[in-house]
Amino acid sequence: MSDTLQSADALASDPHKDAALVPRIVAAYKSSVGRFHGHGNSMWAKLNSMNHDIHTAAIENNLGLLSDLLRNPHRTDLFYGFDFLARSLAMPSTDDERAAHSRALHKILVDLCEVTGAIKAAAANPENLTAEVLLSRLDEVFGFRIDFPNPFPFEPGLRTSRGIISSRALAALYQTWRIKTLTMASDQPKVLEIGAGLGRTAYYSYKAGIRDYTIIDLPMANIAQANFLGRVLPARTISLAGERDRGKIRIEDVTWAPAADEPFDLIMNIDSLTEMDRGHAERYMEIIKDRTGVFFSVNKETNSFSVKELLSVTGKTTIRNKYCLRAGYIEEIIFLRPERS
Questions:
Q1: N or C: which end of the chain has fewer CB within 10 A?
Q2: 337: confidence class by pLDDT, cuts 50, 70, 90
Q3: Does the predicted model carry a pTM greater than 0.85?
């Protein structure tokens, strides 16, 4: 299959998708779990324990059951903690709740347009601009036609002609805009994302032309990322842990980073570094200091430690703002002096 982007809906509905994708996910998960050393003192130990059904299906090579679970994440807690479809999360269920949710998403869409320059921040009554108009303005900023792939049933959000918009998708677009602005000096930027949620930022970064994007995350989160990206992008685009042929988006487990010796133009972490065991987070900061000149972080400071507290390094310049799309979060752009090139 060529790397030409096809319709995400067409890819997700491909009857051969599960037959090709699920065995790859199982092989990668088994390999990763065998190397995984545990969560330490992290909230993710409890959250990942909620996915015993997926773990068991993968370990026992029950491809039929696992395929069903992966096609229907609303019946599982695979996405719990970083996206919306989960059996333990309450979805908007009444017309009033759905309408309120759509209004809130439209406001975030307006905020995204303002911060990226798609519309003027002083524009009169931006709430009166339809989502379709706002998305056409964003197309001009991003240089590609923005879409919102929804490969799974029952995803809540703001319905548009381009798919159902969620706040996580809008955040991923903002993060892609940040990546592009922070890597402008490189013709072929290399990006590493630590903790990638569903992989939405990797998806939009690929559409924006970034062809060297690595994700590192927990083994269970890797399943979620492979399940999403494997359904909305051509199969050759992604590679999973243990696979020899490298895709343009590489999904690796947490043991990969210490062993690999690669520099990156940008390393980023969104909403997970301060949820880790502090010792693990400190080791990540050592990797970040050694592998990049620019670190982009969006994290909250109500956890037991903050990114600011982790930055006990010299020669850093930090841009620090309130995050524009989600209350209670701090955005930091840290310019480091790598110890080696």
A1: C
A2: low
A3: yes
